[in-house]
Amino acid sequence: MQGASCVEPIDWVEVWLSNRGDPAHLHLSKDGCRIHIRYLVQEVCPTSRLVIQGGQMAEDTTRSTDQPEDRQKDLHQVNKTGLSRRNFLKGLGTGAVAATVAPATLAEADSHSATTGAEITRATVKLSINQQVYQIEVEPRTTLLTVLRDGIDTGGQRIDLTGAKEVCDRGACGGCTILVDGRSVYSCMMLAIDAEGKEITTVEGLADDNELHPVQEAFIEHDALMCGFCTPGFVVASKAILDQNPNPTREEIQAELSGNICRCGTYPFIFEAVASAAKKMK
């Protein structure tokens, strides 16, 4: 936004840093309200608390060099940190999380007796996966996807259900889609401990003995795959759609599968396969 101006012009901005006792004064341009956001990102060190005072600001590529002597000194102190924008954003994100979580954590700690490190870092859960119960020791941070693919139960048996694929690991592609109590879920976004007491179904659990599920058959008949890496997620998500809506329109199929990505571009055949499966399941 080149040359934008503020409603209330100012000639300074204070950035208070939690690890410094004094504010860092950043001087603005001549009209008192033009500053480039990169200026803050590059020059201010990452901390757990950041409060900016001074009024409204607009983004601009200009930066004034006529700071008073004391403000030049403050800027010099900040510049010596040599921090990058990436480190600044990391620090700011960490501080925001800490500020949100810490009060609740401290309050809970006051109301419970102290626990050992081992009790905090490990937990044993019982998971019902494809109608088979597994007892697994996990860390609280372990995702359900990790357990399905790499988990080992307390008896030494590997879970080894690799149909759900780890692709993005951030709930953006649908390659790890499974069913939890009949609803499609990204297993990379669900903690294993949250799945206890629920019925988990993976693509391996859709077939009845040696008979494929109608959705699986339809995907084969309509050649609704190319590399096949995303196919398990699409199959599971399609089953969830048809369980909820036995007779979806093409537009409804497209909308419901929008959370799954096929990088090979076989979408037309996938949509045809789901419509065909719907007819078979009537």
> Per DSSP, what share of the residues sits in E-state strands of 2 or more residues?
5-15%
Judged by helices, strands and strand pairing, the structural class is alpha+beta
The strand line-up of the biggest sheet is: 7-6-10-8-9
Q: What about the largest sheet? A: 5 strands, mixed
CATH 2nd-level architecture of the largest domain: Roll
DSSP strand count: 10
Description of the structure:
The chain is of the alpha+beta class and 282 residues long. A hairpin with a 2-residue loop joins strand 8 and strand 9. It has 2 domains: 112 residues, no CATH class; 160 residues, Ubiquitin-like (UB roll), CATH 3.10.20.30. The N terminus is likely disordered.
List descriptors.
282 residues; alpha+beta; Ubiquitin-like (UB roll); 2 domains; 5-stranded mixed beta sheet; 3-stranded antiparallel beta sheet; 9 helices; elongated; disordered N terminus
Task: Give the secondary structure arrangement, pairings included.
Blueprint: E1 13-17, E2 24-26, E3 34-35, H1 37-43, E4 50-53, E5 58-59, H2 69-79, H3 85-111, H4 117-121, E6 123-129, E7 132-138, H5 144-150, E8 177-180, E9 183-186, E10 199-201, H6 214-221, H7 231-244, H8 250-256, H9 267-280
Helix pairs in contact: 6-9, 7-9
